[in-house]
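Duplicate of #3305? Posting structure anyway:
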């Protein structure tokens, strides 16, 4: 069965067509600038040439129509007709407390996802638009919702409650939810599989370090804690998001800079993180790493501050689980930057007996143990694959 995986943003849409049995990628691509001038479809069939087409897309239905046309195109398409797409898997950012697992989409589920819009106002409405557009164009194809928050629903209350008046939890469901759950689940399971160990017997810390970044503590196959909170703003220092700050800074900044709450939040989401900390050098770790090696003091301090925050979370989650067997690095920075991995492990994880294998740590693109056999804690790089995880869930629920 072929599964179409859709990840819909407010003005973009990423897609992959995956064969569920062989788990092979058939085609992938991206629609950009939906609803804005200059919309573009990028389509790449596996093993074929990548095509970029400028085409007007007034809305997400137009975008999905173009994607389906590309997939079924007589010359460059990969399927003969839409009949060959057995199901659609949608990435949904926020499932609130309602969804602890993936689910087949029906009217009731759509209403429940809509109820979570308040918790992720930038993401969930866009995800819903993607579902409605697919429903319009493929009304008989089953669809599955896979939630970024679901894996973290096993967290105990002591990990998910904030020190706020309890009535806010009761009234508004203010609590830690966590995100990147599909990645944390995929990577922690894969780590156990690669090590040939029982997932349920391990204490694993997953460091998902990308433009968005989060850490999770996975004990006996269940998420026990994670660094993102009610929204993806909490936790690590990210590309442009601040991560943890003293909440009083918001009021302080609003007064000093004469900004509204919304304006301060835009600073915390879009102008902070390593971009802000490096005095606008870059939000991209490749540039920061280059700056570090050139001796640019803002780049040096930014990289050190980023690594220090990751190391603090590893320490916290080691305490939370009373130990750790495996530390995994994943996502854009975690998978590609041996420099950051070395910085975190060599500077801060000596107390866990971590010893990195330099040669293994210099490799890329594979599931690999990067610690030496003498290392008391195993350190691994596991490239994440959220689309494959979504395809697996969709197949499980529709086959
Ligand atoms: P993601 O959000 O997982 O796609 O990660 C994207 C981020 O990964 C980019 O913004 C870069 O900062 C980072 N990245 C990608 N390749 C490298 C690399 N070779 N070295 C360091 N950072 C990288």
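Output from current build:
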């Amino acid at each position: 069965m072929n599964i179409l995986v859709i990840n819909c943003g407010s003005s973009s849409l990423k897609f992959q067509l995956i064969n569920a049995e062989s788990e092979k990628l058939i085609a992938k691509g991206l629609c950009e600038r939906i609803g804005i001038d200059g919309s573009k479809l990028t389509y790449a069939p596996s093993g074929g040439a990548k095509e970029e087409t400028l085409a007007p897309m007034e809305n997400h239905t137009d975008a999905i129509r173009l994607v389906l046309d590309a997939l079924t195109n007589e010359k460059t398409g990969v399927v003969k007709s839409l009949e060959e797409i057995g199901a659609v898997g949608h990435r949904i950012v926020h499932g609130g407390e309602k969804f602890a697992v993936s689910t087949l989409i029906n009217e009731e589920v759509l209403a429940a996802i809509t109820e979570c819009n308040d918790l992720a106002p930038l993401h969930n409405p866009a995800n819903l638009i993607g579902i409605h557009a697919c429903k319009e164009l493929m009304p008989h194809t089953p669809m599955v919702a896979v939630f970024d928050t679901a894996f973290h629903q096993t967290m105990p209350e002591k990990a998910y409650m904030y020190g706020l008046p309890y009535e806010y939890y009761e009234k508004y469901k203010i609590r830690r939810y966590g995100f990147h759950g599909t990645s944390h689940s995929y990577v922690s399971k894969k780590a156990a599989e690669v090590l040939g160990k029982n997932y349920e017997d391990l204490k694993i810390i997953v460091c998902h370090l990308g433009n968005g970044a989060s850490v999770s503590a996975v004990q006996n196959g269940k998420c026990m804690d994670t660094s993102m909170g009610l929204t993806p703003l909490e936790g690590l220092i990210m590309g442009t998001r601040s991560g943890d700050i003293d909440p009083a800074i918001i009021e302080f900044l609003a007064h000093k800079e004469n900004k509204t709450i919304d304006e301060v939040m835009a600073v915390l989401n879009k102008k902070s993180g390593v971009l802000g900390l490096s005095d606008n050098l870059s939000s991209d770790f490749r540039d920061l790493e280059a700056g570090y090696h050139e001796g640019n003091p803002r780049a040096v301090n930014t990289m050190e501050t980023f690594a220090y925050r990751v190391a603090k979370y590893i320490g916290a989650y080691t305490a939370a689980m009373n130990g750790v067997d495996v530390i995994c690095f994943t996502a854009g920075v975690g998978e590609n930057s041996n420099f950051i991995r070395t910085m975190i492990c060599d500077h801060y994880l000596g107390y866990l007996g971590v010893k990195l294998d330099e040669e293994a740590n210099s490799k890329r693109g594979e599931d690999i143990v990067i610690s030496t056999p003498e290392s008391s804690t195993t350190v691994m790089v596991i490239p994440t694959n959220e689309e494959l995880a979504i395809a697996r869930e969709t197949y499980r629920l529709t086959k």
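Confirmed duplicate; merging threads. Residues 210-212, 239, 284-286, 289, 331-333, 336-337 surround adenosine monophosphate (CB under 6 Å). DSSP finds 15 helices and 14 strands in the chain.
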